[in-house]
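A quick aside before the break. I want you to see a complete sequence-to-structure record at least once, exactly as it would be stored in a machine-readable document. Don't worry about memorizing anything.
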Amino acid sequence: MAVPAASLPTSSAFCPRESLQVTPSRFNKMWVVENRRSFNNHVKRVFLQSSLRRNSSKGPVWPRASQSSGNTVITAEKLNQEIGCLGVKVEEGEGKLPKLVLKSDGGSGGIPHCFPQFGPGPIQQHGFARNMTWSVASSGNSDGKPSVTLELKDNSYTHSMWDFSFLATYKVILDTESLLTELVIKNTDKKAFTFSAALHTYFRALVTGASVKGLKGCTSLNKFPDPVNPIKGVEEREVVNFPGFVDCVYLAAPNKVLLENGLGDTISIENKNWSDAVLWNPHLQMEACYKDFVCVENAKIANAELEPGQTWSGEQYLSVN
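That is the input. The structure line, written in tokens, reads:
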């Protein structure tokens, strides 16, 4: 069984938001890891393609990972046909080479990274990692599972607000029935630092029918109406839904929760070393699109401390029943 394209991380044409996404094709079983700049520059991109395409008369196509560079001769029209996702398009760049750019109605979605800060705080909301260009470190194919590793390093921009040296790597592994991600943070500085982090994962959903199971008994921090001074409580519900604006942190969450997306799919969200969970839906703050998605996030809310040379890692495993 292949992963339903409508079930896992989603992109909405009406909600411009993030710059690093994993999004499904609208027309075939393709997942696109987009490494995008914010201002129509040249970028690299990596396709992770699963083994099944719709309308294929030749049977399954084996999973593959392919990295595109400036030396690839392919037309912008062909790339637009292959990408088939919202929020980006391909234009003809210098030397008639393809250039991947944001559309004016660019999409919200995917799995944005909150690092080195989750939520409000001394630096910009959710940190800087989600707003920066990540480099393609490597890509490959192991046992029929394509993968890509992206990396982000400190620079003058990051030092201007958070004066530490670091290396962040983000690995994505695609299978026909699942998506695995791993975020690794390494302290490359000469002094210790602390950070918080989260994967701000968007799921396509019918918000009025969406619900999450597995959070009963967790300590909750309800960030509505005041995200700076959340209301502390204990979750008593077996099933948590999205009746309006939702922004709630669950501390010491289990390593597996289940999302019913309201579209007939049950999505298993498992993790390793992400200690907390977050549910979010903006409701009328994003009136054009809030009905079409929910966010169920793996997070590290309490600050993690790394001495020089130390690393922290967190894995997320998504699958659909």
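Two observations worth writing down. The first strand starts at residue 11 and ends at 12. The CA atoms of residues 222 and 248 lie 4 Å apart. We'll return to this after the break.
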